TrEMBL record:
Pathway: Cofactor biosynthesis; adenosylcobalamin biosynthesis. InterPro entries: Precorrin-6x_reduct. It comes from the Bacteria. Keywords: Cobalamin biosynthesis, Oxidoreductase. Signal peptide: none annotated. GO terms for molecular function: precorrin-6A reductase activity. The keyword Cell wall biogenesis/degradation does not apply. This is Cobalt-precorrin 6A reductase. GO terms for biological process: cobalamin biosynthetic process. PROSITE patterns: COBK_CBIJ (PS51014). NCBIfam families: precor6x_red, PRK08057.1-1.
């Protein structure tokens, strides 16, 4: 087996695109994803795919065993714990870390129907005041928290169509009329029709950027007159010795091209 000189963390579409850049450049790498679904999203890449969640200590051991020379954190913008674990492991080993930052559109979004918040609790508090049928386009990971804060409301959850997620939704008490198992990202036209179909009165979403179809989620809200609550990205710093921050895929491509040339 080839030695994995670069270890990428992330089951996002951005992470897959970074892997494809490395394939073109002929760079050796390994991709870590949390779930089998993440592995499915990455099918077709040349690098090894490792499935399973790891804490900082597990990452240190795995990176050492693989002889990793560089780490790229291309995890989801809201995966704060994962990013912190990756940073801790990289610094403990003295391995350079590239932190990929997905570009944000939040500063360009200003409208009376758009409510920006920083926590799930705040999002639910605002949503509870604005309507009874509340559509979540935030995934399934923290669904239990939303249901706790939205007691007495009709919660509609748009989630990934996997058996694990559907079982979890049912275990939380959601009925078939509340679960919409679909894989995005979706067009603005699709979202507009979907919001109307499920008769949503409020939409809660995250600042997922272009890769996550953020504009396509909020534009239909504005055209339909629906309140849209946006949970802004966590504001945590990524600074320290050996940490390089890269903003967007174009900047990442330039960086990898330089490193491939230096091999």
């Amino acid at each position: 087996m080839k030695r994995s000189l670069i270890h990428i963390f992330g089951g996002t579409s951005d992470a897959r695109q970074i892997c494809e850049m490395m394939d073109i450049a002929g760079m050796d790498y390994c991709l870590s994803v949390a779930t089998p679904t993440g592995a499915q999203q990455a099918e077709g890449i040349r690098g090894e795919i490792v499935i399973g969640r790891m804490e900082s200590e597990g990452m240190v051991k795995d990176l050492q065993q693989r002889g990793t020379g560089m780490v790229i954190d291309a995890s989801h913008p809201y995966a704060e714990r994962l990013s912190q674990n990756v940073a801790n492991a990289s610094q403990k080993l003295g391995v350079p870390l590239i932190r990929y930052i997905r570009p944000s559109d939040i500063d360009a979004v200003e409208h009376a129907l758009i409510h920006k918040v920083t926590t799930i609790e705040q999002a639910c508090e605002v949503a509870s005041r604005l309507g009874s049928r509340i559509l979540l386009t935030t995934g399934s990971k923290q669904l239990a928290d939303y249901l706790t804060y939205l007691k007495g409301k009709t919660v509609l959850a748009r989630v990934l169509p996997t058996a694990e997620v559907l079982v979890m939704c049912e275990s939380l008490g959601l009925s078939v009329d509340q679960i919409f198992a679909l894989k995005g990202p979706f067009s603005a036209d699709f979202n507009r029709a979907f919001y109307q179909f499920c008769q949503a009165e409020v939409v809660i979403t995250k600042e997922s950027g272009e890769q996550g179809g953020f504009k396509e989620k909020i534009e239909p809200c504005l055209s339909l007159g629906l309140p849209c609550i946006v949970i802004c990205r966590p504001d945590y710093p990524f600074v320290g010795e050996g940490i390089t921050q890269v903003n967007g895929l174009e900047e990442m491509e330039h960086l990898l091209a330089r490193k491939a040339w230096q091999k």
